[in-house]
Amino acid sequence: MKFFFALLFLICTVYALVVGLSKNPREVPSTLINQKIPNFESISIPSKKSFDSLSLIADEVKIVNFFASWCPPCKIEHPQLMRLNHIDGVKIYGILKKDTHNSLEKFLKNLGNPYNAIVDDPKGKTGIIWGVYGLPETFIIDKRGTIRYKHIGPIMERELPKIKKIINKLHEE
Can you list the positions of beta strands (E) in 2-156? Predict the structure, then answer.
């Protein structure tokens, strides 16, 4: 009987290990995929163009990027956002999470501004509504205001072809 339980325990452990190691930790499932963007309260930043949830239901593909100037991975990602900003028919919207406006100004002055508009999320409430785990996180939204893709962590140069392919596919729909 002890042998049976030991064998059962071993089989379950091996199964859990194989299944766990076969999953990509960067692919965290989001309940928002293929859902309309959530309503959120928009807090304007002086000197920056603002937006709200209704703005994201325009007839164009959009990228929503949660970021902060104090976030090292956001600085790593920034050159890729600058490249994505040059794709025709795509606008990038930024949501500044728990940061100061002065730090934002310095960040954008040093690295460039890929954002069509930026709003403030000083307490992280908008991030919670969107299901943001950390920074940066990026969402691609189709022409009807539906979230079609979520990227966790910085977008690296090697991931640009995948992001561009998703955007091109959404342009064709």
Answer: 61-67, 90-97, 117-121, 137-141, 147-152
